[in-house]
Amino acid sequence: MARLQPLWTAAASTDAAEITTFLRARGVTYERWPLPDAVRTVAAQPRLDDADKARLLAAFSAELAAKAAGQGYGSADVVAIRPDLPGVDDALARFDRVHFHDDDEVRAIVAGHGVFGFTDDDGRQFLLTVEAGDYISVPAGIWHWFYCGSDKFITALRLFRDSAGWVPRYRSTDRGVPQARA
Ligand SMILES: [Fe+2]
Predict the structure, then answer these.
(1) Where are the domains of the chain?
(2) Among 53, 110, 132, 160, whose CB has the most other CB atoms within 10 angstroms?
(3) CATH class of segment(s) 3-170
(4) Per-residue pLDDT tens digits for 73-92
(5) pTM of this prediction?
């Protein structure tokens, strides 16, 4: 279950309906995707081979077909971040700076967790911790950043209209997660 933390209030929320409404008002789509136990087991493995990834995509074939038809997310793959993967810190450092993409950033989390950060129109920030069963679509052009927990462990389906649109465009050369601003 996701956790929403607007930094201008001490009140965090884990209520899916509340989170959905809050994010929808800011252009971000949030859904819960039910995860069968078999999916959870495959997704939480230390390493996923191509067959494992194909099983995960097959398990969500109905959801993926609906997103392809409804939102044009016609392709999907699986990414598994693990702490002992070569180059993992460099890979994560591409996305923990404030950036946007030319395509929507769409993820269905199937294991582990991570945090999306956003800046509201008035400059205030809010954080959304996502974990297994959370689906999020961050529209093209919206400033955001993403970081893993210290365990650097997350498995996610990535949905694309055009994978070329996934290249991050940075707001500045500042490295790392921006300083928290309420
Ligand atoms: Fe991003």
Answers:
(1) 3-170
(2) 110
(3) mainly beta
(4) 999 999 999 999 999 999 89
(5) 0.93
